[in-house]
Amino acid sequence: xxxxxxxxxxxxxxxxxxxxxxxxxxxxxxxxxxxxxxxxxxxxxxxxxxxxxxxxxxxxxxxxxxxxxxxxxxxxxxxxx
Amino acid sequence: xxxxxxxxxxxxxxxxxxxxxxxxxxxxxxxxxxxxxxxxxxxxxxxxxxxxxxxxxxxxxxxxxxxxxxxxxxxxxxxxxxxxxxxxxxxxxxxxxxxxxxxxxxxxxxxxxxxxxxxxxxxxxxxxxxxxxxxxxxxxxxxxxxxxxxxxxxxx
Lengths: 81, 156
Description:
Chain A is an alpha+beta fold.
């Protein structure tokens, strides 16, 4: 299956793109997509400890399974206000 | 009138005041968060705010729902700006209307604390000599301890 990865703020800058298409095995979790991203872009790996994630613009967990066409977003610690 | 807004346009507190108006309102409190010219010893030139807009909008709606759960008589409006903001410009505007002042003050304070906890917005600070992404809270709307902290601050 194929998912869209959205990246924001410093994560976006470290990867050099705010949106990527990634292939993943059927039923892959958010964590599995993150692991392949961190393998391809090692600079983002430390964010595993502090980021949040969302699937189709709803907060999700790293254990959330993904479906074909889903949008998964990785969110650095927020700083609005 | 929408009470939760993410916008690249300048914020207008009058619009928020209108959206929480009502004959039963005896008090309205407002909060404006402004871009200041210094941060952690740096001379700030401007900020650029980035949002994951669809989720940020939902997070604002969630904050309004949480506040109404705790203070049922309160009407709350929260607008957050994105893009480049100069010194003195408002990045966030909140208005809370209620029959009585105590709930209006509490809900307003609760809202800004929750914005800082769970809304997917980031500020990129440009200062004299460089730039840095500001990173605050790990966003987790289901973190009850964070929500209790916001309530405690709001009711202090």
